[in-house]
Amino acid sequence: MLAPAFADPVRGSQRVFRSVMDAMARPGMIVVIAGLAQAPQPLGLAAAAVALTLIDYETPVWLDPALAQSTEVAAWLRFHTGAPLADDPRQAAFGFIADPSRMPRFEAFSQGSMEYPDRAATLVLQVERLSDNGGFWLSGPGIRGSRALSASPLPADFAARMRANRALFPRGLDIILASATMVAALPRSVHVGTEQT
Q: How far apart (Å, rounded) are the C-alpha atoms in residues 102 and 106?
């Protein structure tokens, strides 16, 4: 049997949508995601809630090998969202990544164009730990001064990737970090550093 989605699909997706939009407006702020009791492993609860809320039958989705090897994850996403699965990450509007330490380079995904920056992908990276202590220092639109954010696991060169991503603005990827029950967003406009500015 497929794992259920939101108990109340309308209110559940509305709550998650507001939470994700709040996280995008305040980069690095950690937001609790509630309303989803289960999802097929290794898809985490927060990542699954984001999927149910932001993707539909017109939204190609790429799954990393850790997720793609699970037929239950693919079946669950198809049943609850209708989203087509993309074999090529460049063709995906969303990428869901359960093993960020081994994720492809950012250049493997669509980064939009100057004419259509909205065609860039959004990546949902599942992390085991997400906190506002140490790690990276964020600055830019939506942040007063700077904000600390720590997440793991991530690629060793994550800060460098994010700096290169910001240099592409208005092109570039948007990132959602998702732990079991929380998310934090890193839109393409954010500056990610390893020291406080």
A: 12
